[in-house]
Recover the amino acids of this structure.
């Protein structure tokens, strides 16, 4: 065999061997890319599943949050005390209400506003007296005078009227408000002197309910309740007590007393 032919055969073998090696490298690279892609797809799938789980958990937590926020108004604790509420209804036979008529005239000067407020308060007093309200059941509370945005001043006072005949409430309110457009009804409260026994019973019932709540929550935490640290109460009409009658409204008030009490945790 000539030297030239041996050289050609050798070069061909080198080419064949080299081509086979490169193909192996390409196959290995392709396989590695497939593995990486499959791993990435698996991670994406896991993340999607986790996101769905988190969305479901958030929805459940949001639902629970509504319930928990409602409960938080009924009971709160700092680990040392527990604050609870108790409620009781006052009977519908209470026979006196306190109506606060707001007097608020606006004048150019502070002195003129005070004089106007005093004059209106006197006229309101006279008007409710004509409706049968006793002089001892009317008093005026002064709130002062305040500047307005138009460089004037508003004098403010409240004429507090105790109405003992509830059927007369509309007539008293109409008479007071007819004095001036600057006279309005500010609020209405039950009078503590109307039925002392009923109020005492309602307070005891509301406080007992609050204590029972505190005891239940303390026991659930393996604790006991200690001394009563603070208590506050609010007495207000449960709803508008007016009921339509044939010619006028009849009033059958239903009042609620709310006690907020804080007990020590022992």
């Amino acid at each position: 065999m000539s030297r030239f032919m041996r050289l050609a055969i050798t070069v061909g073998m080198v080419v064949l061997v080299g081509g086979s090696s490169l193909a192996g490298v390409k196959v290995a690279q392709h396989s590695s890319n497939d593995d990486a892609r499959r791993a990435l797809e698996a991670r994406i799938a896991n993340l999607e599943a986790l996101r769905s789980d988190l969305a479901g958990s958030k929805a459940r937590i949001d639902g629970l949050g509504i319930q928990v926020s409602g409960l938080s108004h009924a009971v709160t604790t700092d680990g040392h005390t527990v604050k609870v509420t108790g409620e009781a209804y006052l009977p519908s036979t209470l026979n006196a209400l306190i109506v606060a008529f707001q007097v608020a005239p606006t004048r150019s000067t502070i002195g003129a506003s005070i004089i106007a407020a005093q004059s209106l308060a006197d006229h309101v007093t006279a008007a409710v007296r004509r409706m049968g309200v006793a002089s001892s059941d009317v008093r005026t509370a002064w709130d002062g005078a305040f500047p307005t945005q138009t460089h004037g001043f508003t004098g403010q006072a409240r004429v507090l009227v105790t109405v003992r005949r509830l059927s007369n409430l509309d007539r008293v309110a109409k008479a007071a408000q007819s004095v001036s457009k600057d006279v309005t009804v500010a609020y209405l409260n039950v009078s503590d002197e109307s039925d002392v026994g009923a109020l005492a019973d309602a307070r005891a019932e509301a406080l007992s309910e609050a204590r029972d709540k505190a005891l239940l929550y303390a026991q659930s935490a393996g604790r006991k309740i200690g001394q009563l640290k603070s208590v506050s109460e609010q007495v207000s009409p449960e709803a508008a007590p007016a009921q339509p009658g044939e010619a006028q409204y009849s009033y059958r008030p239903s009042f609620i007393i709310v006690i907020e009490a804080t007990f020590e945790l022992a």
Q: What stands out?
A: Residues 7-20, 64-74, 246-251 have pLDDT under 50 and may be disordered. Residues 97-190 form a domain with the Alpha-Beta Plaits fold (CATH 3.30.70.2970).
